[in-house]
Amino acid sequence: MAPGLQRFTDIAGDGGPRLDAASGEELLRMDRAASVALGRRAPEPPGTLFVTTRRVIWLSETEKGQGYAVDFLAITLHAVSRDLEAYPSPCIYTQIDAEDGSDEEAGGSDFEANGDLQLAKVSEMRIILSDPGQLDALFDVFCHCAELNPDPNAVRNEENGWSGGENLAEGGWIHGDEDMIDGNDLEAHMFFTNLIGQNGVRDLGRSVRELQIDDQRFEDAEEEDEIQENGH
Amino acid sequence: MLFFSYFKELVGKEVTVELKNDLAIRGTLHSVDQYLNIKLENTRVVDQDKYPHMLSVRNCFIRGSVVRYVLLPQDGVDIDILHDATRREARGG
């Protein structure tokens, strides 16, 4: 799991963040007079937002050399928020893959335990731009960057509702397409269902099992071996 | 590629995406990519009492790796086509 929100102090000579050029990190967008609000805290005084091919970095203007960074790998959701009743400023709302025990409860300020800010537990961050008209453009950049950063080692999720020895179901998507490198595992634990909910999953799972039993094409063990070889 | 192809067919339809953190968001499927990242429009949070702050969000991008379920519209599931697709996929074709 990618680390969540982190403190960032690696400032280059020009006052901007020092990027990891060796890994190909490039600056894609910069917004001055941008604020960030962590969890339910009030927004920080304005600073500068940097969006790179790998992460989002925000540097404070008032406290030089201080800032925060979060990898796109850890940003699980982002959205444009404009409803002023829900939040007083239009903003980009993000959810961050935080350590457990963050704000599963509605309160959501555990990360400030003992007065210290535990950044790794921050699970929500809002980005407020001086020009709200730029929020859609920033949203699009975030989308682009999320796609640039697929999960490197998505692990197969054994909670897969279709597991239980159905080689048909398992063999298919795990060993299938070479161009699904990072998507395979995601597919493995996404289920089809419908608005009926649980029943839909169960019915479909049963249908898949029946398929295997009834369809002679899948009874040939040699063919299964062949499938697996071809898949690799 | 089965799921990717399948979800592409659902663009424009109403789906509910449940995340691994239990947040469930309902909205119109705007787009999906090969990582199963999902963009929704006209969203609303299913459990508004628990997540009141998400009310303000009208469109959102969800990382594929945090999706637990995608609940489909009932008429968005053609079981016969789905069966065929899973068989083809399992046969490596």
UniProtKB/TrEMBL annotation, chain A:
Domain of life: Eukaryota
Keyword annotations: Cytoplasm, Nucleus
Location of the protein in the cell: Cytoplasm; Nucleus
Example GO BP: chloride transport
GO cellular component, one term: methylosome
Record-linked Pfam families: Voldacs
Record-linked InterPro entries: ICln, ICln/Lot5/Saf5, PH-like_dom_sf
Main subcellular location: cytoplasm
Family, as annotated: Belongs to the pICln (TC 1.A.47) family.
Protein known as: Chloride conductance regulatory protein ICln
Species for this entry: Oryza barthii
The organism's taxonomic lineage, starting at the top: Eukaryota, Viridiplantae, Streptophyta, Embryophyta, Tracheophyta
TrEMBL record, chain B:
Main location: nucleus
Signal peptide: none
One GO CC term, this protein: catalytic step 2 spliceosome
CDD domains cross-referenced by the UniProt entry: LSm2
Record key words, sorted: mRNA processing, mRNA splicing, Nucleus, Ribonucleoprotein, RNA-binding, Spliceosome
Cell compartment(s), UniProt: Nucleus
Domain Sm: 2-76
Pfam families hit by this protein: LSM (PF01423)
SUPFAM superfamilies: Sm-like ribonucleoproteins
Domain of life (superkingdom): Eukaryota
Any GO MF annotation of the entry: RNA binding
InterPro entries registered for this protein in UniProt: LSM_dom_sf, Sm, Sm_dom_euk/arc, U6_snRNA_Lsm2
UniProt record, GO biological process: mRNA splicing, via spliceosome
Function: Component of LSM protein complexes, which are involved in RNA processing.
Family membership noted in the UniProt record: Belongs to the snRNP Sm proteins family.
Protein name: Sm-like protein LSM2
